[in-house]
Specification:
This protein has three domains: about 5-80, Uridine Diphospho-n-acetylenolpyruvylglucosamine Reductase, domain 2, CATH 3.30.43.10; about 90-220, Uridine Diphospho-n-acetylenolpyruvylglucosamine Reductase, domain 3 (2-Layer Sandwich); about 240-300, UDP-N-acetylenolpyruvoylglucosamine reductase, C-terminal domain (Uridine Diphospho-n-acetylenolpyruvylglucosamine Reductase, domain 1, Alpha-Beta Complex). The chain is built from seven helices and 20 strands. It has helices at about 5-10, 40-50, 110-115, 135-140, 200-220, 240-245, 275-290, and strands spanning about 15-20, 30-40, 60, 65-70, 75-80, 90-95, 100-105, 120, 140-145, 145, 150-160, 165, 170-175, 180, 185-195, 195-200, 250, 255, 265, 300. β13 and β14 (about 180) form a beta hairpin.
């Protein structure tokens, strides 16, 4: 007879203990998650959330491109959405503005290409987002002049009790790299419905190819990184400010301010999460002291120090 509580026995996903988060974040550094779960479906995810204690920390992770887990690990449950909450479909819309439904675990570039192949345009910038739709919704991700919530017409969320909710943009306070629910309690994004312009595949694919070339030429994609570390302050660029403080190439342990793009911190091969966080702090402090501007972090730092 199993020692697991009956509720856990009914789960259909993959439950693991002490999961190394360095395998799941793009910085390739950090500690373990006490519990991790790969849900088999949305109902299975809801069932899993109902097994969690009300005070247990819960973290949803897609591709791990905007996340640092400290070396002491995360004392809670991590839910992995990538390869679990998947699927894109065309919802309809009208002749001029088609709509598309995408699940939280879908990589953002996949939605860009799907839209282009199904008569849409204006999603091309999504090829520059190195995360999932869930992450893009959670932080209003953007690049190359596009922002996620400029295209959102509805989202589905799940709360800690495993209840599903259909929300509208008016239910959220949305700003630059900022999204906060106006409803009490924790909720996580499961999917979104997006609207784009009508367009043709060939020009959209051509623009995506151009943006990808631009990304490869300007970002250190050959080294583990988490994308942009800091938000751009009003009227300026974080990379310009960091470079003006002569911080390009500065190291702490195995973490380095990228010589290629100053708003990227890379793992040169041996960085711990502590190295990365210390370098983030150094950049933030130096820029504040030398320019008077307090850079705001884009990346999420969780867990405890070792």
């Amino acid at each position: 007879m199993s020692d697991q509580p009956p509720l856990l026995e009914n789960l259909r996903g993959t439950l693991r203990a002490e999961e190394p988060m360095a395998k799941h974040v793009t910085w390739r550094a950090g500690g373990h998650a006490r519990t991790s779960y790969h849900p088999a479906s949305v109902p299975d995810l809801c069932a899993f959330l109902r097994t969690r204690a009300p005070d247990e920390p819960i973290l949803f992770v897609g591709l791990g491109s905007n996340l640092l887990v400290r070396d002491g690990g995360f004392e809670g449950s991590v839910v992995f959405t990538h390869r679990a909450l998947t699927g894109i479909r065309q919802e309809g819309g009208n002749q001029l503005r088609p709509t598309f439904h995408a699940a939280a675990g879908v990589p953002a570039p996949h939605l860009a290409r799907y839209v282009a192949k199904h008569g849409g345009a204006g999603s091309e910038w999504l090829v520059g987002i190195p995360g999932t739709i869930g992450g893009a919704l959670a932080m209003n991700a953007g690049c190359y002049g596009g922002e996620t919530w400029n295209h959102v017409i509805a989202v589905e969320t799940v709360d800690r009790n495993g209840n599903l909710n259909l929300r509208q943009p008016v239910d959220f306070d949305v700003g630059y790299r900022h999204v906060a629910s106006k409803h009490p309690g924790q909720e996580w994004f499961l999917s979104g419905v997006f609207v784009f312009e009508r367009g043709e595949e060939a020009p959209a694919m051509k623009r995506m190819a151009k943006l990808l070339r631009q990304r490869v030429s300007s970002q250190p994609l050959n080294q583990p990184n988490a994308g942009s570390v800091f938000r751009n302050p009003p009227g300026d660029f974080a990379a310009r400010l960091i470079e003006s403080c002569a911080l390009k190439g500065v190291n702490i342990g195995g973490a380095q301010v990228s010589p290629k793009h100053a708003n990227f911190i890379v793992n040169t091969g041996t960085a711990s999460a502590a190295d990365i966080e210390a370098l983030i702090d150094l950049v933030q402090t130096t820029v504040r002291l030398r320019t008077g501007i307090d850079l705001v972090r884009e990346v999420q730092v969780v867990g405890k120090a070792k």
